Amino acid sequence: MGTVMLGTEVAKAMKERLIQRTEALKERGTEPKLAILRVGARPDDLSYERGAKKRMELTGIGCQVTELPEDVSQRELEEALEALNRDPSVHGILVFRPLPGHLDEEPLKSLIDPVKDVDCMSPVNIAKVFSGDDSGYAPCTPEAVMEMLDHYGIDPKGKKVTVIGRSMVVGKPLAMLLLKRHATVTICHTRTEDLAGTCRAADILIAAAGKAKMVTAPMAGEGAVVVDVGINMDPEGNLCGDVDFEAVEPGASFISPVPRGVGSVTTSVLAQHVVRAAESLSGQSRV
Ligand code: NAD
pLDDT by residue (tens digit) across 166-207? Predict the structure, then answer.
């Protein structure tokens, strides 16, 4: 039977560490703050926003939301972002994506101040992730996977790690973070031949494909660490991951569930990035 890796436990431990850092910032006159820039009111965005606000509040970080109407112009959106770049009380900026179809995301990527870009939208931060420079901000979900592994004492160094999924949001940057920590990484995708064999050979298997319960028991090697990033609905309408948890769990050494897994750590990583940005912008950097 595998140890269940609970994201809620990881988030709890991170919260304690973050509170100490936000208190230290406040003692020196800096109130760390996240600004969310949202166009319209997509249910997904509102749900993530509620989680992010709660996490900021729990860790002593301020959170302001700029809501723009669904039909906002490109120019108005860019001006709103520039205003947040200039605002000295804002340390981190999160722009909800995807944007409505008439808006172009590309100019925003170059416009956002890389120092405030806490979810890796800027090409500057993307380049840092891919060049192994940890002075920038990686996307929150891949970093949440790394926090999860670290919390449970799983060192990827020298291990065979298979990542299913090659998106720029999860799979690819996660592979880079693992490589930085000296893992031997294989990235799988829809065109991979022998997906099952490649997965079975892994010491650590990470599923980020967005396909409900696609990882079955024969795909996970005996004693493997299995991390599930997927968020899907099963045919009964219940939230589930990419891993068939009940089938895979008996043979795994560690396994993360969905819900209460990686998704529970993502907003804690966001909070950690805001605190780091506030430390850096206020000259109280820990580095
Ligand atoms: P995406 O659709 O952009 O990318 C999916 C990737 O998986 C692609 O590279 C594709 O090639 C690969 N893939 C899909 N089906 C496959 C299959 N059958 N075999 C092999 N490879 C396959 O998705 P994404 O944005 O990277 O998200 C992946 C999953 O992670 C989704 O379920 C998403 O909801 C979830 N997610 C979770 C969090 C979180 O906080 N936990 C955050 C972001 C995304």
Answer: 999 999 999 999 999 999 999 999 999 999 999 999 999 999
pLDDT at 46: 97
Alpha-carbon 175 to chain mean position: 13
How far is ligand 1, taken at its centre, from the CA of residue 282, in Å? 36
- The residue ranges of the chain whose pLDDT is under 70 are 285-287
Residue having the nearest C-alpha atom to atom 18 of ligand 1 = 190
Pairwise CA distance, residues 156 & 62, whole Å: 34
What is the whole-number distance in angstroms between the Cα of residue 180 and the centre of ligand 1?
A: 22
Please tell me the residue having the least CA distance from ligand 1 atom 34.
231
Q: Which tokens in the block code for residue 125?
A: 């931060």
pLDDT digits (tens, 9 = 90+) for 111-129: 999 999 999 999 999 999 9
Residue 61: how many other CB atoms lie within 10 Å: 27
What does the pLDDT read at residue 119?
94
Domains and CATH numbers, the chain: 28-114 (3.40.50.10860), 140-264 (3.40.50.720)
For tokens 């592994």, name the residue: 149
CA distance 132 to 178: 10
Q: Is there an atom of ligand 1 within 6 Å of 266 CB?
A: yes
Query: What's the 242 CA to ligand 1 centre distance in angstroms?
Result: 9
Per-residue b/e over 63-101, b at no fewer than 16 CB within 10 Å? Answer: beebebeeebeeeebeebbeebbeeeebbbbbbbeebee
**Residues 125 and 138 sit within 8 Å (Cβ to Cβ):** yes
pTM of the predicted structure, to 2 decimals: 0.96
Distance of CA 70 to the CA centre of its chain: 26
